[in-house]
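REQUEST FORM: STRUCTURE PREDICTION
Request ID: SP-0412
Submitted by: Lab K.M.
Chain count: 1
Length (residues): 383
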Amino acid sequence: METFRIDVPAADLDDFQRRIDAVRWPADPPGGEWDRGAPPRYLRELVGYWRDKYDWRAAEARLNGYEQYRTEIDGAQVHLLHARSPEPGALPLVLTHGWPSSVAEFLEVIGPLTDPRAYGGDPADAFHVVAPSLPGFGFSGTGLGAGWNVRRIAEAWAELMRRLGYDRYGAQGGDFGSMISLELGRVAPGRVAGVHSSMLLVPPPDDPAELAGLSEPERRRLEQHARFENELSGHFRLLAARPQTPAYALTDSPVGQLAWIMDKFWEWTEGDVPEDAVDRDHLLTNVMIYWLTGTAGSSAQFYYEYARELLATPPARERPITVPVGVAVFPHDLVLPIRRFADRDVPTIVHWSEFDRGGHFAALEQPETFVADVRAFFRLVRT
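STATUS: Completed
RESULT:
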């Protein structure tokens, strides 16, 4: 473990400003506001704010308010935030982000999770929080070999927690972080107290007979899953097949990187624009982490590895998880699980919550709800 501090060179920020000033805008598309992607009117205004008002140094200082480390695991560099609780009985908890996110996703929840007493909560709910940057993402850097898929990252997290001296711990994640957290439960069942998922991916069964008797809300979820597979998974198909090709554009253009990520935050959150769900400065901090570290391409490689892992790995029901699982369902996520199919794939679900607000980036969109549900689940498995 080596201590780490973010200190972006001024020359990198000057280069960022120069590239924004020299941006070449595409022609305005026909049609509606977002139906063909991030609309020029919205993006021009956001870029103006980014250039003139956004303060990276303030975001950098906030991130540097936490202990940070880098360590090499299995040939990959891993960056992490480590926030220790003042409570002696705190349970270690590893929080795993997904794409297109970063450790900044958890900035609003680290305080309440580590020090509930200071936020009006019960100190018995305290956690020591470990928030790693996925290999190839953000401050973990770009130097990454092949083969870094869900299982390999889960194995790395088990080693990471061992190095931190944590023998028993919980895991939480959404997006790819959910898959990694569940796999961590399979990799280290004797150490993982429980897994909390804020995006449980449950594919529908192949047998049409299993679809009989679905309620109307369940049918809507099934239709949403089909729409994602057929219409809204273009980013997945592109990155799973040719991750390097878009990397050139995203690494060369900050506005291109911004548009790429804002499109997903609009699609996977609640509201007319991403800022309806997530603070504007926080959105830009997440984009800046990708831009300043040049990890658009290395993070995209995860899709390539994941797609090949899917072909080689049997379904989850054939690799049953044995540790307790909690599920939080936020209505504006990209896909929503159906409970009966979830129980088939994850037979150890002991906690299931459904909410009426929030989307894919739950810790950012609904931090109080997120914290309350994480606390509620882990109360069941702490001892």
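NOTES: The first strand starts at residue 2 and ends at 3.
Reviewed by: T.R.
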